């Protein structure tokens, strides 16, 4: 099955040139077949209208359970973790729903990213405008490939339900290492470089930049541990900070 195709003009046209922007009946039928638009409720009671691919070869088509569980966790910890000046990068954004939720709820400076596929980028932009936002900055990036910027500046990197393809774990870890180890703050306005969150009554101090991920899609326990062991071998520290929520940072020497 082919990947869904659609015209950029159908997303961003202003209606001034009817001939250029109008779709034939055949094209309209094709769009109806490859997209499904649903309303999803994010916490506490935010309804987002999200257009999803009926099929996408890279699984960028649907909202997965980890998205909503992660939204709950982020809402619970937003006072200590999030603020409007925080710069956030989401890996594997898919439809962009989680990023839209965070931008709408906390006004964070968030950038979406996913596989180097213009269709994903255009659909995220469509979902942004459908929910009253300007299209968010987006980076097309395939894990393991050189990153478009040599100086990543995001204090917080997030992802949900991205551990589906075991063969991609080394590439994902390679990208994470680059983003965490090559972090260069743009300026000093982002605030303190540390965040504290409370997990099961224990306060955990985290030094930025950090990667926080959640998932609910079922993967084998061995596959899960394979990813964590790969992170540790690459010099990263993995912390369990919630129900199937994990924080990954650069391994730092213990203070004497």
Automatic annotation (TrEMBL):
GO biological process: methylation
Keywords associated with the record: Methyltransferase, Transferase
Keyword Methyltransferase: yes
Keyword Transferase on entry: yes
Any GO molecular function: methyltransferase activity
Coiled coil: none
Domain of life, source organism: Eukaryota
Protein name, UniProt field: S-adenosyl-L-methionine-dependent methyltransferases superfamily protein
Organism (species): Rhynchospora pubera
């Amino acid at each position: 099955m082919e990947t869904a195709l659609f015209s950029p003009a159908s997303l961003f046209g202003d209606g001034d040139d009817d001939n250029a922007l109008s779709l034939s009946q055949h094209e309209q039928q094709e769009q109806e077949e490859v997209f499904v638009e649903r309303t999803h409720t994010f916490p506490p009671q935010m309804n987002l209208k999200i257009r999803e691919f009926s099929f996408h070869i890279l699984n960028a088509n649907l909202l997965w359970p980890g998205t909503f569980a992660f939204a709950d966790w982020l809402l619970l910890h937003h006072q200590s973790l999030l603020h409007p000046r925080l710069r956030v990068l989401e890996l594997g954004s898919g439809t962009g729903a989680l990023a839209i939720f965070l931008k709408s709820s906390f006004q964070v400076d968030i950038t979406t990213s996913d596989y180097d596929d213009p269709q994903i980028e255009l659909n995220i932009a469509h979902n942004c405008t459908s929910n009253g936002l300007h299209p968010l900055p987006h980076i097309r990036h395939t894990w393991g490939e050189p990153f478009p910027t040599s100086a990543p500046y995001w204090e917080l990197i997030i992802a949900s339900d991205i551990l589906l393809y075991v063969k991609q774990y080394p590439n994902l870890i390679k990208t994470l290492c680059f983003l965490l180890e090559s972090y260069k703050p743009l300026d000093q306005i982002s605030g303190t470089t540390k965040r504290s969150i409370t997990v099961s009554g224990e306060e955990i101090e985290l030094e930025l930049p950090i990667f926080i991920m959640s998932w609910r899609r079922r993967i084998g326990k061995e596959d899960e541990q394979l990813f964590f062991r790969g992170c540790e071998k690459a010099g990263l520290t993995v912390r369990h900070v919630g129900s199937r929520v994990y924080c990954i940072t650069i391994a730092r020497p213990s203070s004497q």
